[in-house]
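--- STAGE predict ---
source: upstream dedup step, 1 unique chain passed
mode: sequence only
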Amino acid sequence: MEKISIVLVDDHTLVRQGIRMILEQEPDFQIVGEAGDGKEAIRKVSELNPDLVLLDYAMPGPPGGDVIAQIKRFNRADGYILKDTAAPELVSAIRSILKGGIYLSPSISKILVRGYQGKKMPKFPKSPYENLTRREREILKLLAEGYSVKEISANLKLSIKTVDAHKNNLMKKLDIHDRTHLVRYAIRCKLVEP
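--- STAGE serialize ---
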């Protein structure tokens, strides 16, 4: 029996291990690789050419939509499933996608239908990083590199009050409350070198 090759992409090792355990119970599924971020995912997919990629949309690093667009250049299938999905639905979704279908979790389907009925396109969840403005991303990077608010203010030719407001906004959006965690987050997002 020819096995279906799968690459798992999630920045949480435990999540990848859990999904691996579920999928390896299927005799025709084979996990051929794993990745912890978008850049690594793109590299692994181009190297391994799997039948299917299971990817966490909201990860640090490049926005999920960009990663998906790059992976789709290798002719990957479409599907969107939430992390709280039960194991049998995950397996069913994979099988549906491999037959050429498009799979959406029921809750996502509802969002699409409501959006269509209301003539508005639905908004899919974004990663916290994607919710940052260009200026907030710039300030996040400078803060993580060790610059003070005063130095950033001088560097960007903004008032200290404005830089402070951007800093507070980005910390609120990322749900980070101190500089140490901000630096760790920036390292995970590959904005700065560790």
